[in-house]
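Fold this sequence, please.
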Amino acid sequence: MYSTYWGTPLYSTAIEPPASKKSFLSAIKPVMPSSCFCDKCGSQADVRICPSCHSNLPSTIADYEDYIIAVIGAKQTGKSHYISVLIDSIQNSIGSAYNCFLKPENDDTIRRYNTNFRDPLFKHKTTLEVTSSATGTDADVKKPLLYTLSFSGEGIFGTKVITLALFDTAGEDLKDEKIMAQHVRYISHSAGVICLLDPLQLESVRDQIHEKGLPVNLPRLDNENSVNDLLNRTTNMIRNLLKMKVSKKIEIPMALSFSKMDAIKPLLDPGSKLHQPSRHTDQRGFDTVDFEGVSNEMKALVQGWTQGNLTNLLEHNYKHYAFFGLSALGMDPGTDSRVEKIEPFRVEDPFLWLLWKNQIIKSHMRKG
């Protein structure tokens, strides 16, 4: 009789692999055998599964470095659209620029990406459904999209293969620290966090839109999950799970990314870098000049929008953080939920910054 995990029948038992011989490398990274014999039936087992939940692990687990990229944000900040367009970007523009290849690790990832992300947006030209809470009955939202991302050639630190886990977290699951600790605790073990924030939820931005009479469809104001509250809860959870002192800064890089920048472009200075496309795929390397210019400009905007609250929060709690402005769709789909033409803007920036901070890709130095 099979045990049920994630709502799907999977392997009922997990075999403890034999102890590996001690070596210098095993002290750095555990060695996982490719197969072992079942102590009950004597057959050879070659499927790697999690000893806790009994679900399949990536075939590359323990062979290469594993990177969890957590995409978080309040409700309707565009997390699902961001993940959908980011994966498409990795397969195309990023893949060409950095000579990398993204391979889904299992049928479940293929099915979920095609059904829940790619087909509705790119084939049917409609917006995506809001992500369900992990506290509900939808088992898919509790699992990451698992990929192997392999790099070779210029612009990287030698040939690299990494396991990439992308989580699409429901905004409701970030409204309570207890729920977060139960369902999104993976954030505390991530290689980086892309925190999506909606500038249209900031009262100062909404006031500017009203003053200028801009034709922007403003979403309902979410008073239950403000930008500050979301980041404070996330920071508290990471500190509690890692048992960190307040005096020590969190090592996990935080990419604070404002989505839907297409809606507020009229509020930006005409010479703003946020009117210009990303430079990170022009050369085989992360463009530090472009990054610093955008991050500094976004930081100044955020300080004005939030009276310095967000920047102070990041400065006191995170060792590595940066600011980004992006748009997954490049336009407002309006009330009919139709997306006739997808024109993503700087979607790749926070992801490539996290790869750069984790020393997977190199930087490209240029003047001005």
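The longest strand covers residues 65-73. Confidence is low (pLDDT under 50) at residues 1-10, 20-30.
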